[in-house]
Amino acid sequence: MQMKNKIKYEIPISGSITIKVVDIIGTPVRVILNKHESAGQFEVSLDSEALPAGKYYYKVLFTGNNEIKPEADGALNQGDTIASGQVKIEVQ
Description:
The structure is a single chain. This protein is mostly beta strands. It has one domain: Immunoglobulin-like (Sandwich), CATH 2.60.40.2550. The chain has no helices and 6 strands. A 4-stranded antiparallel sheet has the order 3-2-5-6, with no helix packed on it. It has a two-stranded antiparallel sheet with strand order 1-4. The termini are close together.
């Protein structure tokens, strides 16, 4: 059964974003996106037709490329990871 999942994300500053599909034990199954993006809102589709039936998660990792600022002001430094997470995808 073909199923398309849309993954929407927003990034506050330009940087590198990677979105991976992993199986239930965390083994990477597919890289959906691995690129540099400018700040903004985006959407990517996952075509799960090639995945066997099962439960999967997608993991999002974003590393921003902002200016280096003093740590005291709480600002991010270049290369800091500012967002990551995972959400369950079920393929039947």
